[in-house]
Amino acid sequence: MKVAKRLFDLIISLVLLILLSPVLAAIICLVRLLLGSPILFRQLRPGLMAEPFTLLKFRTMRGARAGDGTLLPDDQRLTRFGHFLRRTSLDELPELINVLRGEMNLVGPRPLLIQYLDRYTPEQARRHEVKPGLTGWAQINGRNALTWEEKFKLDVWYVDHRSFWLDLKIILLTVWRVLGQKGISQPGHSTMPEFRGTRPDQK
């Protein structure tokens, strides 16, 4: 299963990078023109067994700061072009490089922030028993319109039921969801609110 999954991920990632190379080149030029350098957003994220790796994405935000030097809220830094990249999931295409490196799978729980690690319940932390993915079970079942608790429950369900055929189903449904542009964010939020832990009544 692991060898077949790795081979499948490698082939699909390489094919996608080749087929989408004109799109990638266009996005690189537009990010450079509209947002400047760097073109890629790099951030440490927890991978398999919570081991950190550097996630790659296209930049979607300006580096604007307040008078005290702190970054402005995401809503104020997210550009119209950046919102378009997020809405279409084009900002995540560089993660195909993470897949080629073996840091991610095509399918798996999404890699979240390092600071969330000590906020998970033991059950929620099981999402790190597999490599993170470019897309996942939670992404085709509500994406960011879900609560954190709903997303983590779906992530753990995937960990317990993962298979090649389930991965194939998730990939095909992901294409449909991206085209439909559903579940991009929760009402009133342009980005997913920070996960601050699960209250006892939500566990």
The strand line-up of the biggest sheet is 1-2
Q: Given the helix and strand composition, which structural class is it? A: mainly alpha
Counting structural domains, the number is: 1
Radius of gyration: 17 Å
Number of strands: 4
| Helix amount | 40-55%
**Percent in strands:** 5-15%
* CA-CA gap between termini: 32 Å
Shape: globular
Order of helices and strands: HHEEHHHEEHH
The major sheet is characterized as:
2 strands, antiparallel
* Average pLDDT number: 89
Low-confidence stretches: none
Count up the helices: 7
Overview in brief:
This protein is 40% helix and 10% strand. The protein has 203 residues and is mainly α. The chain has one domain.
Walk me through what this model shows.
- It is a single chain.
- The chain is globular and about 45 Å long.
- It is built from 7 helices and 4 strands; from the N terminus they run H-H-E-E-H-H-H-E-E-H-H.
- The strands form 2 sheets. It has a two-stranded antiparallel sheet with strand order 1-2.
- By secondary structure, it is mainly alpha-helical.
- Strand 1 (40-46) and strand 2 (52-58) form a beta hairpin.
- The protein has one domain.
- 40% of the residues lie in helices and 10% in strands.
